[in-house]
Amino acid sequence: MKQGVRRIWPYLPWLLLLLGVDGFAALLLWIADAQAFYAMAALIVLATVLFFSGVCVLLMRREQKREQALINFLDSPDDYHEELLIGAVAAPHREYIKRLGRLFRAQQSAHAGLQSQLSDYEEYVEAWAHEIKTPLSLLTFLLDNRREELPAAVSVKLDYIRNRLQECVDQMLFYARLGGTRKDYLLENLSVRTCVEEVLLEYQPLLEEKGFQISSRLSDDLVFSDRRGLRFLLGQIIGNSVKYCGGEPELCFRTFEKDGRFVLSIGDNGIGVRRCDLPYIFEKGFTGGLGEERKRATGMGLYLAKEMAKELNLTLYAQSDWGSGFEMQISFPVVQKTPDHCDS
């Protein structure tokens, strides 16, 4: 009903004009012959309404046909639908339809090319990440089996190189996947304690080199998430703490419930973040303006952490004061408790 009223509404002024002409004609008829006026007035009005209704029906059908042709053309702007639309519009508009069709097809071709390039880029990044695992695995094998043959200083530097390479590869791989068309997340019940311990094991050489003290107060609660994505997220936060640590560095892990959500807190006693910089730490490429370490930073770690949190439906909250450490809270949407809880 509303659709019909909307279609008729533009033609109502014409009905009013016709009724006005009828009124003027009726006035002349009344002046000429009052008896004829009473006999013909109703017939004149009825004929006008019927004529207007018939014209409206024809125009509405034509407009519906034109609208459907336009919708089909917008959905698929090929030559066939372009010709159908050209046949449904007035002659002055046909050249514009042809120009619009050429523009749409050019945009479609460019979009298809970009999609193909993006797919090729994803495949290249994944292939490169796979290939780089070979020298990384060789370096890991060397450090695990021939460490005693290497000078301590060399062993520490190789550990640092291996961990930095692995971190950079992980960042690049996850960055490519975040903007990609393929998502391969495997959501399952995970132990936060286990995920934290696995990531700490990966960063153990760097943590030991910096002399970190680890404090853990983690419960045995389970969360529903993707293991690789969560470990990547934890790795970016822990790596950030390692980069910007101070003297006698510490890392503190704790879990608690807040507003019905399970929260994992990761805090350090490093240099922290200035209050004016805190709102921007998740922005791509933001490093802050002070400190030699921050000058060499890429500004990608926390950005990727934020993007991964979005993918996994997690919430990140950061708080810090300059010179007094940094804390990141990861809020999970679902809490599943195990029968026993213990702190370590």
Strand content: 5-15%
> Could you give the distance between the termini?
69 Å
The CATH H-level homologous superfamily of the largest domain: Histidine kinase-like ATPase, C-terminal domain
Largest sheet: 5 strands, mixed
CATH architecture of the largest domain: 2-Layer Sandwich
| Inertia-based shape | elongated
What is the number of beta strands? 7
Short note summarizing the structure:
With 344 residues, this protein is of the alpha+beta class.
Structure description:
With 344 residues, this protein is of the alpha+beta class. It has three domains: 2-89, no CATH class; 115-184; 189-332, Heat Shock Protein 90, CATH 3.30.565.10. The protein has eleven helices and seven strands. It has helices at 2-8, 12-32, 34-75, 79-88, 91-145, 152-178, 192-202, 204-210, 227-243, 292-296, 301-311; strands spanning 187-191, 213-217, 222-226, 250-258, 261-268, 315-320, 326-332. The strands form two sheets. The chain has a five-stranded mixed beta sheet with strand order 2-4-5-7-6. The chain has a two-stranded antiparallel ribbon with strand order 1-3. A hairpin with a 2-residue loop joins strand 4 (250-258) and strand 5 (261-268). Helix 2 (12-32) runs antiparallel to helix 3 (34-75). The radius of gyration is 36 Å and the shape is elongated. It starts with a helix and ends in a 12-residue tail after the last strand. The relative contact order is 0.07. The model is unreliable at 338-344 (pLDDT under 50).
